Amino acid sequence: MRSFCHFGLILLLISLVTSCMKENKYTGIDKTDMDLSVQPGTDFYQFANGGWMQKNPLKPEYSRYGTFDKLQEENLEALRKLTEKMAKTAGSDDPVAGKIGLFLKTGMDTAAINQAGIKPLEPLLKQIEGIKSRGEVKEFLISMHAHSISPLFNVFAEADSKNSRWMLAWLWQGGLGMPDRDYYLEDNARMKEIREKYLDYITTIFTLSGKNEKEAREAARLIFDLETQLAKASMSRLAMRDPDNVYHKMSLTQLQKEVPQISWKRYFEGIGVTDPGEVNVAQPDFFKAAGELLNKVPVETWKLYFCWNVLNESAPYVSEPFEQAHFAFYGKTMSGKEEMQPRWKRVLNTASYALGEAIGEAYVKEYFPPEAKQRMLTLVENLRKALGERIQNLTWMSDTTKQKALEKLAAMKVKIGYPDKWRDYSELKVGESSYIENVIEAERFNRAYMLSKVNKPVDPMEWHMTPQTVNAYYNPSNNEIVFPAGILQPPFFSMTADDAVNYGAIGMVIGHEMTHGFDDEGRKFDKDGNLSEWWTPEDAKRFNERTEILVKQYDQYVVLDSTHANGKLTLGENIADLGGLNVAYTAFKMTEEGKSNTRIDGFTPDQRFFLGYAHVWAQNIRDQEILRRTKEDVHSLGRFRVNGPLRNMPEFYKSFDIKPGDPMYLPEEERAVIW
What residue ranges define each of the domains in the chain, with the CATH number in brackets? Predict the structure, then answer.
């Protein structure tokens, strides 16, 4: 699924939460987390985090282990205790707790899971085997989407980019077993190796499902060739960053004319959307190509492709051989992980997706202190004031655009902690016998909930993250910044740390999300969340010139061997990092501590601010994960999220006496000044 929400800190699909149990132990800066043998002007990231990196080596189950992951480790235990109570209530009078308990119970019953193997999938696999004609291929494509398995493309509900108060059905390219088109198309040794391992993985899955080695290898080759054709038709990840590129609203009649190979009225009825109204086809060229493939690729190949989609999506939730094969490719080959997470963590992560707000509601009651919400509201308004002042003082922007930018900032909504209204899970069926059936049913339930919003008014109170998530986001269509309860704890936020550390950490997070409203994507949405051109052409040109400086800076960073960072792919996040840090610093200087020069632990307030910021991004990371993230992730790696913005901030130079000749030094004429 594609969303224009900017998950601006780090991509953690189900990063589970946190308690405030360790709050009284947190003071802000721990010198043992630093590497004092390194000069700040040489490598500030290493200076601030070298000790932490040494104390927290990579664990076998991780491809990247950082402060986020450490936080998750500590607090998964807290969430485990919470859900274990629920597991004991399975079948009790508390229906929601009972469902959570049953879900976890079936997920932990490895004996039953291994004994069942893929038997729960056999009815669906037999239906695929029974397909005889091209017409039946197209009908079964609809049936699979109705089962929440999405071969070929994806569908989801999202606000209309140019009418932000109305929900549209969005059709989005898909159909690939690897995470990006470039894995199929790039001609280098690393990609060739991954492609061979992917073919091996498909072969393994088919041999486990009953085919002999020769049949399985031939099936793998046919599936790979089909996916390669889909990859060639796919829009690049970089092109999709531009919201104008993925906005192509059309009527069902027009869609039928553009892609006649699928009965779109029948398709939407089949997935439970009786009246979709207009539809946004995000990548029209892809859908035209996919339609042509439906008429060209042999029926037997489509059958294999459908079976592959069922088996691949189910592999983590069925018997151990499938689970191990899935991990060997997606965990080891793609990311360099050495071991799977313990089973209880995997099941808890899945449950947190399946029944996210139900677990979130219990979490908030148990762990979230009400005073944290009020403290955050104060911080947000301080940051809003600081960003407003910075916009007012911009020398490169006209008064006309400034006024509209200030109006957008004033209209920006704030959500903190948890939603005012919780989701109703009463219709979700959770059984006692089959984990994979519970996973599929939860996926179907959540998909039906999402699609029920199509062609209806947007619910502005809805959240796109669960309360237990350690993250934050900006949603341009609702012009809102959202901070789940999970992130409101150390090292991001502390009720006991001094302002310098809090503003450097959670203050920067707030500023980062606010700045997303004015990055290269967010700036194209107005105060009401509509995609519209509200900048003067001259201001847009000056903005692009300034962002190009940032692109060139990040393009020069070497992430591994001869591989460089992708300054264009990460531009939005880099703008938000630089802008967020500047805004947080401006807000910090309005505080009593910010106006003083009182040292704590030998550091000035400004130094503590920058150290607080740097510590958020401490991490160790495997080479495979560096390469994967550089290819796929719109966020820069932790080292460059620290050193990159700081090299553009005069206040940082002054705080740590950075001089010409220091590796951290950047000549003033080469620095980026945007927000």
Answer: 23-57+368-419+463-670 (3.40.390.10), 118-317 (1.10.1380.10)
